[in-house]
Amino acid sequence: MSAKKTTQVLIGGKVYKLSGYEEEDYLQRIATYINSKIDEYSAIDEFKKMTSDMKATLIELNIADDYFKAKSQIDKYESDMEQKDKEIYDLKHSLITDQVKVEDLAKEVERLTAENEELTKLKAKLEASLEDALLGTGSSGLL
């Protein structure tokens, strides 16, 4: 486990000392994000008229809103990713099945080609035998 660190950040014009296991850069980015929210709402006239507690609550609500929208988006991406992983798995399974079928068909083509060659040879022998038989019978019948 990494060592606990202490970092000073500036939020809303006040310096805060934070302790934790996160890197200073990360904590500074959080402070910058909070300051950007404060600046965003400070530009609104109605916000300027609110009490400090109400301002803080409004900013907290908006940060929570950003968090839940981001979390929802992440959940959607994770769900989409799971669906795509399932589709990829199904496609791989289908591909393997098709490859097996192709291999089986290639073997069948090989077998049929060999059988065809044998039948072609047999046909040639039978034709030669028939021709010899016909020529032999026909020539002895003519004499």
Q: Which properties best describe this structure?
A:
single chain; 143 residues; mainly alpha; two-stranded antiparallel ribbon; 3 helices; 2 strands; 80% helix; rod-shaped
Q: Point out poorly predicted stretches.
A: none
- The overall strand count is 2
The string of secondary-structure elements, in order, is EEHHH
Major sheet summary line: 2 strands, antiparallel
- Compute the number of helices: 3
Instruction: Report the portion of residues in β strands.
Output: 5-15%
Q: What would you call the structural class?
A: mainly alpha
Mean pLDDT: 93
Strand arrangement in the largest pleated sheet: 1-2
Could you explain how this protein is built, in words?
A hairpin with a 2-residue loop joins strand 1 (5-11) and strand 2 (14-20). This protein is 80% helix and 10% strand. The mean pLDDT is 93. A two-stranded antiparallel sheet has the order 1-2. It contains three helices and two strands; from the N terminus they run E-E-H-H-H. The relative contact order is 0.04. The chain has helices spanning 24-42, 45-48, 52-142, and strands at residues 5-11, 14-20. It is rod-shaped and about 125 Å long. The chain has 143 residues and is mostly helical.
